[in-house]
């Protein structure tokens, strides 16, 4: 039993070494539509995940574009959010394209490319709640607001005067359950995520803010960029590649991803 | 989009059915390999720890024995005392970062679950051995068996019979704890459920399906282990032919209790 195990391990190591030739390994969670999600069937846009299923979404399309421009094959390594920085620093993946923002704390351990998306923060609330027609942050005084764990969405909540900040939750489905059941009055999200949430949960709506009325964020916080190891040679190359995608192309790619997501069927 | 609870369950099974099954397969594979190898590690550790050391043995032998006992105790304490999720991250990421050793996710999963289970199994087996009458070991020594022979032929078979419920427990725990391995990119059924939940943004419906899957897996396992237990117990009735006073007699024994 042990001999078989050792032989199997040796074989898998061999195959891993052989496959590492010209592949760009990109880490993402594949759990956050419309940026990255997992689906069971293939399609012309979806990329197979080694462990089973196919990945698709805005991040996957960006990854495909970058890999094509670099002349490498793309391999998607599906990794849980908290394991992504470790996967990058240890070399399990070459880049993180997972809807991640280049916050100051993250920049201490990893480098980031230029942004490939700029998010627009909104607050998702229940339809018919007292906050539905809010227009400014001050309208949320006294509200119980939450956000996703380990993201800058959670830290901006402090900007709302008089807010009752709730514990951060692990992911968006958890936030939706908390909101629908009435445990919280709202959660911070990016606009595409909020649109997706409304499709499967018609009792939700979101509050968008005009210029100056919304959260004050530094450019770095709302950007979504590619995470790379410190001092990686790929950073400069990827910046050149991303510069080829203008604002129009990026919006079209996002709209297409939102249309393609399973929720839109 | 469906509106009812069961409407959503139908949709999720349609779209993610194959992925859920794949995840369940991976979960069972990790649990089976981890528990089996862990069980063997536990038996080995138990044999080593109960090695009888004569105080007349040479000093180097005594020194070796004490070092071995210390190392095994340390192994048990460390692997029982740290969470499996931490062990998994250290092995999977730490090995590559500090030892330049790339262990594939599934192999790392097997390794971590086996070694972790081995630590628990060592104590379970030790408990089983303690419950065996000292007379068994003395009789084995009296008829000239070595420590290894007496362990494998006399003590352990009896001990295993009595610790099977605890082993079954460990098996069930492994099936459910394999979910923590999602941090090292192992796509078992919990990680798959998070994908389904993250795509459709529905928690209750997805995790209802996951709970049912786990229930089916653990229920089947416990029933199978019950069968193994029954097999090990042997038959309820057995007949002894002949006795010292009367060679022709047949004595029927009925085993009390099961």
Question: Explain this structure to me?
Answer:
The complex is a heterodimer of chains A (265) and B (258). Chain A has 265 residues and is of the alpha/beta class. Chain A folds into 2 domains: 22-118 and 220-264, D-Maltodextrin-Binding Protein, domain 2, CATH 3.40.190.10; 121-207, Periplasmic binding protein-like II (D-Maltodextrin-Binding Protein, domain 2). Chain A has 10 helices and 14 strands. The mean pLDDT of chain A is 86. With 258 residues, chain B is mainly alpha-helical. Chain B has one domain (5-254): MetI-like (MetI-like fold). Chain B has helices spanning 5-49, 59-81, 84-99, 105-130, 134-142, 147-177, 189-200, 204-233, and strands spanning 237-241, 250-254. In chain B, a hairpin with an 8-residue loop joins strand 1 and strand 2. In chain B, helix 1 runs parallel beside helix 8 (204-233), helix 2 crosses helix 4 (105-130) and helix 5 (134-142) runs antiparallel to helix 6. Classes of the chains: A alpha/beta (265), B mainly alpha (258). Chains A and B meet through helix 1, strand 2, strand 3, helix 3 and helix 6 of A and helix 1, helix 3, helix 4 and helix 7 of B.
Question: What's this entry about, in short?
Answer:
Chain A has 265 residues and is of the alpha/beta class.
How do the strands of the widest beta sheet of chain A line up side by side?
11-10-12-9-13
Residue stretches of chain B low in confidence (pLDDT < 50, at least 5 long) are: none
Mean pLDDT of chain A: 86
Per the CATH scheme, the topology name of chain B is MetI-like fold
Q: Using only CA atoms, what is the Rg of chain B?
A: 24 Å
Residues in β-strands, percent of chain B: under 5%
**Biggest chain pair contact, residues each?**
A-B, 49 and 45 residues
CATH class wording of chain B: Mainly Alpha
The number of distinct β-strands of chain B equals 2
Number of helical segments with 4 or more residues of chain B: 8
* Structural domains of chain B: how many: 1
Radius of gyration of chain A: 20 Å
CATH topology of the largest domain in chain A: D-Maltodextrin-Binding Protein, domain 2
Give the overall pLDDT of chain B as a whole number: 88
Q: How is the biggest beta sheet of chain B arranged?
A: 2 strands, antiparallel
Largest sheet of chain A: 5 strands, mixed
Distance between the termini of chain B: 54 Å
């Amino acid at each position: 039993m042990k001999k078989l195990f050792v032989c199997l391990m040796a074989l898998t190591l061999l195959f891993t070494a052989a496959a590492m030739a010209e592949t760009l390994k990109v880490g993402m969670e594949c759990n956050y539509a419309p940026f990255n999600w997992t689906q069971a069937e293939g399609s012309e846009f979806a990329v197979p995940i080694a462990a089973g299923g196919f990945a698709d979404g805005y991040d996957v399309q960006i990854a495909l574009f970058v890999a094509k421009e670099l002349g490498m094959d793309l391999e998607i390594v599906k990794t849980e959010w908290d394991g992504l920085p470790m996967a990058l620093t240890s070399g399990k993946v070459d880049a993180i394209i997972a809807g991640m923002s280049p916050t100051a704390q993250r920049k201490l351990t990893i480098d980031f490319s230029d942004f490939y998306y700029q998010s627009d923060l909104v607050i998702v609330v229940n339809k018919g709640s007292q906050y539905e027609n809010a227009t400014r942050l001050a309208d949320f005084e006294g509200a119980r607001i939450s956000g996703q764990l380990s993201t800058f969405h959670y830290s901006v909540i402090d900007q709302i005067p008089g807010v009752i900040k709730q514990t951060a939750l692990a992911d968006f489905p958890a936030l939706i359950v908390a909101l629908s059941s009435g445990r919280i009055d709202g959660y911070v999200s990016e606009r595409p995520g909020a649109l997706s949430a409304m499709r499967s949960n018609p009792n939700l709506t979101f509050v968008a803010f005009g210029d100056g009325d919304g959260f004050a964020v530094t450019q770095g916080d709302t950007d979504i960029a590619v995470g790379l190891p410190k001092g990686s040679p790929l950073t400069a190359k990827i910046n050149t590649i991303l510069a080829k995608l203008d604002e129009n192309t990026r919006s079209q790619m996002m709209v297409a991803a939102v249309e393609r997501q399973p929720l839109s069927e | 989009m469906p509106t009812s609870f069961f409407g959503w369950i139908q949709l999720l099974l349609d779209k993610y059915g194959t992925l859920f099954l794949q995840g369940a397969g991976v979960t069972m594979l990790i649990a089976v390999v981890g528990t089996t190898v862990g069980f063997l590690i536990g038996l080995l550790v138990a044999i080593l720890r109960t090695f009888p050391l004569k105080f007349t043995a040479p000093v180097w032998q005594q020194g070796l024995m004490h070092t071995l006992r210390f190392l095994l105790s340390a192994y048990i304490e460390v692997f029982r005392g740290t969470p499996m999720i931490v062990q998994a991250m250290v092995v999977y990421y730490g090995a590559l970062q500090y030892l330049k050793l790339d262990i594939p996710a599934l192999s790392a999963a097997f390794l971590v679950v086996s070694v972790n289970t081995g630590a628990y199994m060592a104590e379970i087996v030790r408990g089983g051995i303690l419950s065996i009458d000292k007379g068994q070991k003395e009789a084995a020594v009296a008829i000239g068996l070595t420590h290894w022979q007496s362990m494998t032929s006399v003590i352990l078979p009896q001990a295993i019979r009595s610790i099977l419920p605890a082993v079954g427990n460990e098996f069930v725990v492994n099936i459910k704890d394999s979910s923590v391995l999602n941090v090292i990119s192992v796509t078992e059924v919990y990680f798959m459920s998070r994908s389904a939940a993250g795509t459709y943004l529905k928690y209750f419906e997805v995790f209802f399906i996951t709970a049912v899957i786990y229930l089916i897996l653990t229920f089947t396992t416990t029933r199978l282990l019950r069968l193994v237990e029954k097999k090990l117990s042997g038959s309820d009735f057995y007949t002894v032919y002949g006795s010292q006073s009367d060679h022709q007699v047949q004595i029927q024994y009925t085993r009390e209790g099961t």
